[in-house]
């Protein structure tokens, strides 16, 4: 079984960006093999096979975010020693907040300079380095707020949500506004992205609370597989 962590995996949803990322990784002053992933669906199997030191992903504007939070969380659980760098402009405050709970996850703005990206990658490759965690959104929302956002993503009206939850539509709207403020979601594009991942976010918040309360160990390994397949 392979135990050396001398590989770097990378994935980009944009092929032109993939060429630039490959060139940057090849120029790093480290002795690592570089492997390109063609699909995020293969990331778990390739990480299991190669035991890489670093995984780099570009989530471009043309990429659906559905499934990404589940994969990032499962990677953290199964490969805690592997650093993950995600470059994106999508839901940046939320992504930064997630990185506060997933120690191996590092988020960078997709528009970051080559120098900043190189510095971050070298820092992540230094296993003894201390990673600075920027301020982000607050993802540990109450379940009621998460449920309101989830039902909105499903297309329910304020009145329908209120009737199902036994609250007024004004209270539903208050939950929505409070949730969006805490998640720092401000634009229509952010809302569309949030609706794509709100089901995963609600599930991950539940898992993070279990982890914080020391109950995550009570779950079986199959639960992680179910997390990816849900």
Chart the SSEs and their pairings.
Elements: E1 7-12, H1 15-26, E2 33-37, H2 43-50, E3 54-59, H3 68-78, E4 83-88, H4 92-101, E5 105-109, H5 114-125, H6 143-153, H7 158-165, H8 169-183, H9 188-212, H10 222-229
Helix pairs in contact: 3-9, 3-10, 6-8, 6-9, 7-8
Outline type = elongated
**Largest sheet data:** 5 strands, parallel
Mean pLDDT: 88
User: Poorly predicted ranges (pLDDT <50, ≥5 residues)?
Assistant: 220-225
Strand order of the largest sheet: 2-1-3-4-5
The helix-and-strand class reads alpha/beta
Brief summary:
By secondary structure, this protein is an alpha/beta fold. 52% of the residues lie in helices and 12% in strands. Strand 4, helix 4 and strand 5 form a beta-alpha-beta unit.
Structure description:
Strand 1, helix 1 (15-26) and strand 2 form a beta-alpha-beta unit. The model is unreliable at 220-225 (pLDDT under 50). The chain is built from ten helices and five strands. Helix 6 (143-153) crosses helix 8 and helix 6 (143-153) runs antiparallel to helix 9. The chain has helices at 15-26, 43-50, 68-78, 92-101, 114-125, 143-153, 158-165, 169-183, 188-212, 222-229; strands at residues 7-12, 33-37, 54-59, 83-88, 105-109. A five-stranded parallel beta sheet has the order 2-1-3-4-5, sandwiched between helices. The protein has 230 residues and is α/β, with parallel strands linked by helices. Helix content is 52%, strand content 12%.
């Amino acid at each position: 079984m392979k135990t050396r962590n001398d590989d770097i995996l990378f994935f980009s949803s944009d092929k032109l960006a993939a060429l630039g990322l490959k060139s940057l990784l090849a120029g790093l002053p480290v002795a690592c093999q570089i492997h390109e992933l063609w699909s995020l669906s293969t990331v778990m199997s390739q990480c299991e096979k190669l035991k890489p030191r670093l995984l780099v992903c570009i989530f471009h504007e043309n990429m659906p975010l559905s499934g990404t939070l589940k994969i990032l969380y499962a990677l953290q659980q199964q490969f805690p020693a592997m650093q993950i760098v995600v470059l994106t402009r999508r839901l940046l405050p939320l992504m930064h907040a997630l990185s506060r709970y997933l120690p191996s996850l590092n988020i960078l703005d997709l528009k970051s300079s080559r120098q900043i990206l190189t510095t971050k990658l070298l820092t992540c490759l230094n296993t003894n380095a201390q990673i600075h965690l920027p301020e982000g959104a607050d993802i540990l929302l109450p379940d009621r707020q998460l449920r309101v956002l989830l039902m909105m993503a499903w297309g329910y009206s304020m009145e329908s949500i209120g009737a199902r939850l036994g609250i007024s539509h004004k209270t539903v709207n208050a939950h929505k506004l409070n949730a969006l403020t805490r998640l720092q979601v401000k634009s229509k594009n952010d809302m569309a992205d949030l609706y794509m991942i709100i089901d995963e976010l609600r599930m991950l918040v539940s898992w993070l609370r279990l982890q914080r309360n020391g109950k995550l160990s009570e779950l079986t390994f199959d639960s992680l597989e179910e997390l990816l397949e849900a």
